[in-house]
Amino acid sequence: MAPRGASVRDEGNEMSTTARETTADAFERRLSTTPRSAQERDALIAQPAFGTVFTDHMARVSWSADGGWGDRRVEPYGPLLLDPAAAVLHYGQEIFEGLKAYKHADGSVWTFRPWANAARFAQSARRLALPELPAEDFLGSIEALVAVDLDWVPGADETSLYLRPFMFASEAFLGVRPARGVDYLLIASPVGPYFAGGVKPVSIWVSQDYNRSGPGGTGAAKCGGNYAASLLPQQEAYARGCEQVCFLDAATGTQLEELGGMNVFVVHADGHVETPALTGSILEGVTRSSIITLLREEGRDVVEGTVRLDDLRAGLSAGSVAEVFACGTAAVVTPIGRLAGTEFDLTVADGATGPVTAAVRSRLTDIQYGRADDPHGWMYHLA
Ligand code: COI
């Protein structure tokens, strides 16, 4: 199990855990009697959109305050039987994760830094007063589900099997307290690029009216509530002709925090790179930490600090800021081509993909898709 307080940056822990036991064999296979035919499946994964198609099965583990974690199983994918009084429907006690399984040229299937996701899932659980799922179960559920639905891992360029672990309060009880009955599930979805237009620069609306999180809040946890809070500002972004929203810190309203579901990086013309520090209200992205490592390896100064909106605007206007990009598991590395707010509308990198953004994207995806060596031991063999 990941040690308490383990961080996605804890690489020593990550590398030494690749050989650890998982509970994959403890997942009972209760297989679907009506799986999609090979023909139907192949048609579904031929040109996958993001998060619209799901595999034939899901993995599941249930928890009770009295019995702890148990009943590990892989069962047919399908609607959940949920009591209308289930606490998650009322108080939002829920967390999730996102990672991917990649098919390499030799047909083998791998995932990327899953122990980092397991550690973050445990951190999120603590913040939402949910039980911590042992990392061996987190990994075990992935191994068990991917083994059963292996044929759903797509092989075309820029495609993968997106893995969505989540946990929620399933106890039927309307009192406001941590639930005594909880379910953990893992579902899987063959995906292509997160943005419908493929990999191309996106436009960002900087929200100056709404915050995603505040000091002492749940911003560092990957919980549904943070994403719910981002939806109205996201709508505002659409109304302003932008594709994504960027949030500022709640305390001063002057510093960049993160996008609705991605971390953000600023590349300066002198070569150094900045990204908002992990202040407690920002998600500690696995892709974020990997990019910091990769950029530092190529000799760049990467500063995790305060990224002030005023400085960014001035830098874009003066040309001292060369590129801005967003990153996350789903969106990988996504160039930002335009940054707008109530008093400004600025083009970034002439609206194109800058060279630093393109290079770090290639470096990362080359590792993930097995086209380059993996010097950090980030890849985890699934099948
Ligand atoms: C991810 O990058 O995996 C995310 O969770 C972002 C978003 C799809 C919610």
From TrEMBL:
Q: Keyword annotations for this protein?
A: Amino-acid biosynthesis, Aminotransferase, Branched-chain amino acid biosynthesis, Pyridoxal phosphate, Transferase
Carries keyword Zinc-finger?
A: no
Q: What class of enzyme is it?
A: transferase
Note the InterPro entries from the entry. Aminotrans_IV, Aminotrans_IV_CS, Aminotransferase-like, B_amino_transII, BCAT-like_C, BCAT-like_N, BCAT_family
- From the Swiss-Prot or TrEMBL record, what is one GO molecular function term? L-leucine-2-oxoglutarate transaminase activity
Reaction(s) catalysed by this chain, per the record, are: L-leucine + 2-oxoglutarate = 4-methyl-2-oxopentanoate + L-glutamate; L-valine + 2-oxoglutarate = 3-methyl-2-oxobutanoate + L-glutamate; L-isoleucine + 2-oxoglutarate = (S)-3-methyl-2-oxopentanoate + L-glutamate
Entries under PROSITE patterns matching the protein: AA_TRANSFER_CLASS_4 (PS00770)
Protein family membership:
Belongs to the class-IV pyridoxal-phosphate-dependent aminotransferase family.
Q: What is this protein called?
A: Branched-chain-amino-acid aminotransferase
